[in-house]
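Class, discuss our next protein.
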Amino acid sequence: MYNILICDDEPDIVSALEIYLSSEGYGIFRAENGEEALAVIRENDINLLLLDIMMPVKNGLETLHELRRMSNIPVIMITAKSEDADKILGLDLGADDYITKPFNPMEVKARVRSQLRRYMQLGAKTAEAEYILAVGGIRLDEHSHAVTLDGDEVTLTPTQYEILRYFMKNTDRILTPADIYRAVWGEEPYGAESTVAVHIRHLREKLEINPSYPRYIRVVWGHGYLMPKKK
């Protein structure tokens, strides 16, 4: 059973999310602010965090910034439609996805399943033979899920790992934001271009010497992105 932590200072929202997700068999933990959420994560085996942005004591963005120093568990931000800037900032800080109030129960369940599946696949062990993807100085081990750049380990979130893996399996091919979203999130990309762009920018910051002049993930203006096989 997977454990999900819901962090929001509005009891009605927490109760609604708990009803949606407990019906799927998830274990539910609750927190009213970021300080409580971090304490719950330190003391329990939490597999995913649903995190509100606007909260007292410690808001969602502050909480996310601190969380990413100690854990790569998936984080889905809880946002209002008016919080577009905060959505982008949340993705920048390491959030994996977001859901917008008012909630569609089916969408909430689908996004949670998608993030848990990706996270557990990243951490899962397999008996299959080791398989290495290599492009330039990047090496991605599909057996251990380790990524190195010029011999140095690179720490990626599950979403960043899957985006990089998709690029490395499709070198010399222009990939649109829609292609990437379908492959990584497993959903139709309605208005998801900004989400993809933020994750790629964050990924570049970890892989490129100068993210403004990328070697590995290049923009093809008006079309999408390209990872050249040969450097």
Notes: Residues 124-130 have pLDDT under 50 and may be disordered. Residues 136 and 230 are 7 Å apart (CA to CA). The domain at 3-123 is CATH 3.40.50.2300 (Rossmann fold). The radius of gyration is 18 Å.
